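Structure in, sequence out. Go:
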């Protein structure tokens, strides 16, 4: 089938789509499915002996070391539960540095002596697996002849059943490390960073009079933005199949300029997908809370409730897998690329985070009078210090070839990392800097003017959607992560920078008190020093403005515009010392991540460049040449009849074809370079040579899309993909 016929057939397929049969049962009580496929605390309490249950809970809730003696008992109970749920296999699920989920499946059943099969699942099997460690990105930590790696059970993240029409699988969240104990995944450093942060947070709490504070953990809730398009269009777009974004596409007559999609009525087909997806998420214990249309046509969002950051990271990965799977069931493709369509809003993954424990609750809750809440001010000040000192690392934690298309545009936070505190907190910290806070701005009210409507209370501070790190009432929202990435990377950086900041605060208070200072005076002294030394990172204005670029430079804030600018932050002496000091990464692990990030940047752009060349050469150029031939033939026929002709259409098409051919030749040349002698050189070539060459090809191709006859154009257009669903 020719390209143009395939495109038209794709449109027909969308028009003929029929949604799957309804799944909802009126006999099902809303909420009863939540967690039904999870090995929850309630399930463990029923199935485990009381001492074993208490031991496991001590690990989960109080971060106590896992007692190896309980593993066999837990494994047996978990196996019996899984078999009752129809599971035939178990899988250690881990999160390698691909950014995706990995899993190795093994059967429960083994042949017995009598020729029958028996179900086996020992404690050792639960706690440890052995996948190949050399076939995943490892940045030189493992070689092909050094292939041994281990998965280790993360007891704090619950096991679950993954359903399939042909059989179910018990999934066990694990870490993934090399034989030398070095982290080859996202989860291991996340658990290390959480432990480091907790130790320092508990030091601070003890200074505030909490003699035996419960274990402090970081919590996260990541808003997930995504696009949905009909799968028929994807099969006609090699760029979407290969790279997850469109490498060509002229702007449609209507985009998002009317602001009519945001929070609009959810289309029936999409709502059916959302309802189906949420039910699957509920069964897996993932607390999906919010759903709505996002800014761009075809763009949507799902947001969960807060969870421990390592569980939230696991659930985020599982959420993405579920969204993809259910979308396919409904004949759609779920796109997580940060910028799948040029010219309209991209997708992020805003990570809301806080700190807390069972006894003190949320440590970032200011209360009604934050100026009197010294404990809150200390933890808030720790965020300010951390973001100012390690803004480059935060920027690096969200750096990727895909997120570069989004960051810095007027739709996402700028590449300059700053903090928005809001009017109330900014005023409190301004008072602190001047010697002590004595008041807090109070909440206001809105009088709407219609007697039938209630008076609405307002928060003491507005929100700022242009800020990368914004305080939103009882948490901070890190808005820079991209929709495609794991939230583990940003949370590792956040936890570690807070460990350093809380360590500094505790040490300063302890030193002042040892020198005879009163506790309140010591707290005021450290708060005043932090806001004086690090207040430059606080910015409540418009992060999109040109003036902010100038002002941020004057404040000494980094403006790391691209991934190539950001990645060297991973291997600065300050970064290596920070992560090493708190046991999150060794220097070898840090350098490995730098190598991997550089390599993945180059590989991502390389795939896009080859796709651009192939599509331009085999789809766009042939369509344009056919149209050029048609125009030339028609003009020749008219001239033969002595009819005066206008050659402007032919001239325009010919000029664009010439530009396209020039772009193809330049891109082919850029792809044909001999290679680089280092991963940095390869990444630099990709960013500085391949990307501009691809852009030149796209300009010519998109111009041709607006000139070539519609029945000859081979690629589904933006108008079709975004508005036909």
């Amino acid at each position: 089938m020719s390209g143009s016929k395939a495109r038209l057939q794709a449109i027909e397929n969308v028009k003929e789509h029929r949604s799957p049969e309804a799944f909802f049962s009126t006999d099902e009580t809303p909420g009863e499915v939540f967690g039904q496929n999870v090995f929850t605390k309630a399930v463990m309490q029923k199935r485990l002996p009381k001492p074993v249950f208490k031991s496991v809970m001590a690990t989960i809730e109080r971060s106590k070391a896992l007692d190896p003696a309980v593993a066999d008992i837990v494994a047996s109970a978990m196996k019996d539960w899984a078999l009752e749920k129809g599971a035939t296999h178990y899988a250690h699920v881990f999160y390698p540095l691909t950014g995706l989920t990995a899993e190795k499946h093994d059967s429960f059943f083994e042949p017995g002596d009598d020729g029958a099969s028996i179900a086996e699942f020992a404690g050792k099997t639960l706690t440890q697996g052995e996948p190949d460690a050399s076939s995943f990105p490892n940045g030189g930590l493992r070689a092909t002849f050094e292939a041994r790696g281990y998965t280790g059970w993360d007891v704090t993240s619950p096991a679950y059943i993954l359903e399939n029409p042909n059989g179910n699988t018990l999934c066990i969240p694990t870490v993934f490390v090399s034989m030398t104990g070095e982290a080859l995944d996202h989860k291991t450093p996340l658990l290390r960073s959480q432990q480091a942060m907790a130790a320092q947070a508990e030091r601070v709490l003890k200074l505030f009079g909490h003699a035996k504070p419960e274990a402090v953990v970081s919590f996260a809730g990541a808003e997930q933005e995504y696009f949905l398009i009909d799968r028929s269009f994807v099969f006609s777009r090699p760029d979407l199949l290969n790279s997850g974004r469109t490498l060509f596409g002229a702007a449609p007559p209507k985009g998002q300029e009317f602001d009519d999609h945001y929070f609009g009525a959810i289309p029936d087909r999409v709502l059916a997908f959302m309802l189906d997806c949420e039910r699957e998420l509920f069964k897996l214990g993932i607390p999906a809370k919010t759903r709505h249309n996002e800014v761009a046509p075809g763009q949507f969002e799902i947001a969960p409730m807060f969870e421990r950051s390592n569980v939230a990271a696991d659930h985020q990965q599982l959420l993405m897998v579920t969204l993809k799977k259910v979308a396919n069931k409904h004949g759609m493709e779920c796109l997580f690329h940060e910028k799948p369509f040029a010219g309209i809003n991209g997708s992020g993954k805003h990570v809301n985070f806080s700190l807390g424990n069972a006894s003190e609750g949320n440590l970032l809750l200011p209360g009604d009078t934050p100026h009197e809440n010294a404990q809150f001010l200390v933890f808030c000040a720790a965020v300010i210090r951390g973001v100012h000192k390690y803004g480059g690392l935060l920027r690096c934690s969200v750096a990727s070839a895909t997120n570069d298309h989004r960051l810095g545009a007027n739709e996402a936070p700028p590449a300059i990392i700053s903090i928005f505190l809001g009017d109330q907190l900014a005023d409190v910290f301004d008072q602190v800097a001047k010697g002590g806070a004595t008041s807090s701005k109070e909440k206001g009210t809105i009088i709407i003017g219609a007697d039938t409507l209630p008076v609405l209370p307002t928060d003491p501070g507005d929100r700022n959607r242009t800020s990368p790190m914004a305080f939103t009432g009882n948490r901070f929202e890190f808005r820079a992560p991209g929709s495609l990435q794991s939230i583990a990377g940003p949370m590792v950086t956040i936890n570690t920078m807070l460990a350093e900041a809380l360590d500094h605060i505790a040490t300063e208070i302890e030193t002042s008190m040892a020198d005879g200072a009163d506790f309140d005076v010591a707290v005021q002294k450290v708060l005043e020093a932090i806001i004086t030394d690090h207040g430059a990172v606080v910015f409540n204005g418009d992060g999109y403005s040109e003036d902010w670029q100038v002002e941020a430079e004057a404040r000494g804030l980094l403006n790391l515009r691209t991934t190539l600018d950001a990645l060297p932050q991973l291997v600065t002496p300050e970064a290596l010392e920070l992560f090493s000091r708190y046991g999150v990464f060794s220097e070898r692990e840090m350098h490995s991540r730098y190598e991997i990030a550089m390599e993945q940047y180059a590989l991502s752009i390389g795939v896009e460049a080859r796709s651009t060349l192939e599509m331009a050469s085999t789809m766009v150029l042939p369509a344009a040449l056919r149209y050029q031939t048609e125009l030339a033939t028609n003009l020749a026929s008219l001239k033969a009849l002595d009819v005066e002709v206008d050659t402007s259409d032919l001239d325009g098409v010919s000029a664009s074809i010439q530009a396209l051919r020039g772009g193809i030749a330049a891109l082919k040349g850029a792809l044909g370079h001999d290679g680089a002698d280092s991963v940095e050189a390869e990444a630099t070539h990709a960013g500085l040579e391949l990307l501009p060459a691809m852009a030149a090809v796209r300009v010519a191709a998109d111009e041709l899309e607006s000139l070539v006859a519609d029945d000859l154009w081979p690629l589904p257009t933006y108008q079709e993909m975004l508005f036909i669903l």
